[in-house]
Design a protein that fits this description.
single chain, 261 residues, alpha/beta, 2 domains, five-stranded mixed β-sheet, two-stranded antiparallel ribbon, binds zinc ion
Amino acid sequence: MFNKHSLTDWLGRLLGLTETESSTEHTRAVNTLRATYGLRLVETDPKGNARAWRSSELSLLHDTLRLLGPTFYSPFVDNPIHLWIDRNPGGGSYGDHWLRIGEPGGDESILYRILLHEGTHASNEYRGWPYENEFCTCPGLDWRKEGDTWTHPRQQGRPPEPGDWETLPVDARDVSVAPGEDLAEMVRYFVHSVRDERAWLWPLDQSKPPLYLWDTSPTRFVFVRDHFLQLPESHPWYRRLSPEVEARAAANLARRSRSQP
Ligand SMILES: [Zn+2]
């Protein structure tokens, strides 16, 4: 049995051991994210704005990147993204290999959604902007450049143009002011729809299954699946539309421009 002194001693050793084990686990997770996915986690900074990552957040990063797949993350491995959580809440941003996520508090879905959006900007940039340079002017994606300005039949802040073009059945957030924003939201919609995360597809019609987005915009669905993420048919996110619609989307995407950056 324990006397008071040895019990204290034993508890101290136990707690010390637990701390060592959890910090070893943390270090291992951080190293894996760096080596496998090219994410360099920043957990402190001179101003004290960056905070340490929680173990559940490390798992979320690992699981999400693994599912997004090597086409998405492998460009980061040789030139890692600095990824940090800002103690100041609000939004996220990506630029110059730094990805900031405002403090998500207890709601990890915020972290998840920002990671999908900003991570898509990063992957697109690391790969030399394939969406802008090869795909976005295809029929079904429907961007065109007038001088230096990108335009789309459904542009934020303007009434949609009439005509034969595909669109997402949502209002203001489907197409932004630039192809890059369109792509970031497109990937986010793709992931949320194939995962049946209908609550995050605002302002989706909640009475319908999330995949109904792709009935109105099949070219986007096929673009993300086959070109931006290049998912194999065995992937849990892989979905197919009807053969006729698949053929139409594939024909649209075959008309990629391959213009030089
Ligand atoms: Zn953005």
